[in-house]
Amino acid sequence: MKAIDIDVGGTFTDLVLTWDDVRYVAKAPTTPYDLSVGFLDVLTAGAEQLGRPLDQVLPEVEIVRYSTTVAMNRLIERKGPRLGLITTEGHEDAILIGRGAQWTDGTRISERRNLSVQAKPAPLVERDMIVGVGERVDSTGRVLRALDDDDVRAKLRHLVDNGARAIAVSLLWSFVNPDHERRIRKIIREEYKGYHVGYLPVVLSHEVVGKVGEYERTMTAVLDAYLQTSIKFELESTWDQLRANGYRGTFLLTHNTGGSGEIFKTTASRTFNGGPVSGLMGSFHIGQALGYRNVIASDVGGTSFDVGMVVDASVRSYEFRPIIDRWMVGISMLQTTTMGAGGGSIAWINDLLGGRLEVGPRSAGSYPGPVCYDLGGTEPTVTDADVVLGYIAPDGYFGGKMPLDRDKAVEAVRTKIAEPLGVSVDEAAALIRRIVEQNMASAIKREVHLRGYHPEDFALFAFGGGGPTHVAGYRADVPTAVIFPQAPVFSALGSSVMDIMHVYEQSRRMPFMAPMTEQIVIDRDAFNGVVDELMAKARADLESEGLGAEEIVFSVELDMLYGGLVHVKRVSSPVLRIESEDDARLVYDAFEKEFSEAFSPHVVNKPGGAYLDGIVLKATVVTEKMALPVHDLQPADPTAARTGSREAYWPELGKRAETEVFAFDSLQPGNTVTGPGIVEMEFSTIVVPPGQQLRIDQHGLGILEDAGKDDQS
What we know:
Number of strands: 32
Protein name: Hydantoinase/oxoprolinase family protein
Strand order of the largest sheet: 17-14-13-20-21-32-31-28
InterPro entries: ACX-like_C, Hydant_A_N, Hydantoinase_A, Oxoprolinase-like
Pfam families: Hydant_A_C, Hydant_A_N, Hydantoinase_A
Strand content: 25-35%
């Protein structure tokens, strides 16, 4: 298998090149002005490791998978086109009214507490660009009022004359009967041809979300329309680079559902959060190979800290209220948490809070980057603190390709942090690290405890460029942290083991179990009809991507709830179709079990009956998974991997100390580095403080734990 997996982060673009049984890794600075430049740079760096030019490597590559942050970046910058929204007459203000607590969507907890400054986000569609057209369909799909074509043409002209450059269409109950939305698109194409210069992208809500929820469905369509043009431009440039260098295979994008799909079958909103999802899915698949059923995936990048959880060998934990930026959407998204804490996070003095030191959420990004990059940055960052403390060698950063200016980092920490706080430079730098690591540890504890679990029951996977450098400080109550040789590019590695998967959702409210009598009453024909319809759509999509029907594995998940309760639980259905009473009983038993585990057995309300709320079909093509090597364990003494020593400041000792430095690639399975120690990787550095140790297990992975633990390899 020859494949390329790329993850575009805020600071670096990462690559994993799979060439038969060997995986090569490369990194290049992200180029926010044109992501295709950094994309080409990292491709070239990967090809160089094979000793061949890029245009000789790409023709042999079978598949390229890509995790992008374009959607996130464009929303943050608010650089989308002027939108028009066509909805049902009388519902023009629905998305402006929003949900009752819409002003909290997408905000941090600390921001929500300050009610006096809270406000709803500026809408992506201005009120004068929202029009209602004459039509009405009821909840059963029956047409109550036929679509007024002339009204559509007049309202469309109004939007275009006022500057609309993309149109979202969201009508009431369109996912039950989409004829009116399809007719509106046909009218738009009649009025504004696709081959004309002023081409108008059109997004229909029933095509992006087939679920009930007017606000969420409409906002998903609006976000897709808003992001489509900019993502299309970025990915077209990337696609052109691939084609120009001889690539003729499939170009897949990571979806926030945990799968991936071809660029021509992916909507813009489904690419949001692709990097963190790749890391989570990589943790899931590799955790299974290692025998870990419970894993906390932690990714420390240049701009953010991402946390996801694998629980009981499953990642089927979806966002209860999926939010993209500041808006609730109707698409399923795997649950991950992102906070502004990374190597580029800026340390600053908060004068409003009595001169308290804070770190993040602002980031220096890749340009100008930390002060030590010497690219124009003036504010000290976490990476600057690492350099000042002696953990990161200025001449070894980024594989030695990016020499750092330690003197400038020291001066920035001195003038901006140490002097205002009245402490030494080393103490100030150590304080920066402590604060950012405490923030990360708090995020992990919050995720674990709020879901009802205990940190000591998990293994912590630390990856990203800064994960190995900071995991000793943020692992807190988690007993074991696992560091991979590919940790700096782990999200790209994760996408290399992800399955190709499409997710199809359809709202369908049906009684499943009768109240009081507890008799199964599901309409099997109606249920199977929806499943068959979704399967036909999935086959058509995947076959159009060049994948045979025999390769597709189907599975069904169901949104179900009890009568009298509002909590909907998504359950993995043990059967694909319900053909008998026994099949239906298996489905109910699975629902009761998962509902009990999620909410408590005491709230199971069988006398209230059970209801089906929606059907989710997953169409998966399983990809080849990586095999983990197994080595014989060597003695614990790591001396053979020692490359020298340097002075580093250790808060645990309260002073600088001469510290041994080791090369990660030279450490053998069984070797143990007891802190204080520094272990250097090609694109990262593992910091082993006093009281902790790093041992290499039989797979060549780094296991960070408290010093003195027995070898459990």
